[in-house]
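Students often ask what a holo structure prediction actually looks like on paper. The answer is less mysterious than it sounds. You provide the chain, you provide the ligand, and the output is a string of discrete structure tokens encoding the 3D arrangement of the protein together with phosphoenolpyruvate.
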Amino acid sequence: MRQKIAAGNWKMNLDSQKARELVTELSNTMTPSGVEVILACPALYLDMANTLASKNRKVHIAAQNVHDKDNGAYTGEISHEMLTSIGIKYALVGHSERREYFGEKPSFLRDKVSTLVNNGFTTIFCCGEPLKVRKSKKHKSFVAKQLKDSLFHLKEDQLKSIIVAYEPIWAIGTGVTASPAQAQEMHKFIRSEIRKKYSSQTAKNLSILYGGSVKPANASQLFSKADVDGGLVGGASLNAESFKKIINSF
Ligand code: PEP
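The corresponding structure tokens follow.
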């Protein structure tokens, strides 16, 4: 059985006190059996969040960003070595906001993925098409290329530490959600690409999360689809009550 996951992406939100309260509340909450929680916190709060979450082994703290180099003259960046030194072993790579606003190119994402995988991290690799591409019906080939460019250099056994998050850009923070059928269609396609490149077993074991305006009201319908193994949640993960409802939607 592949892992069911409710992941929250706080982005650049919450002050220190609110972050502390949110992670405390979620760490004190029983997670349904078979479900893991990942919280991608701002870098500034990772150490605190990880200490608070350590009492609940089903809650993992993730970095929202990490550089591909081990260390060096990269002002403002954080490295896998720094994260490891405070016990963080989860990270996001390839979020559309990093691609779009910070110009992160597929080759850079590929290097980040390698660095993380080679250093024992679990990596949530984000992919997803903009509205124009969806409208032109080229969304499958667009996502296939994102996988090929930044993920398919990995060896088969390295896929064990990868979680894919399909996040159509037109659904992120817009209140527009992909329908459960649209999410299922793309997740099934992603799984088939993994099968073609690697094997049925690897495809079967890969957790694929849906992201894009997941809310308590739509989570259970999305998560009920065969190839949707959970969600990567932005806005609705900033409030303990709404995120707890999402965690309980499996
Ligand atoms: C995200 O940040 O990855 C995301 C899906 O955001 P939202 O849930 O707010 O659309």
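The chain has one domain: 4-247.
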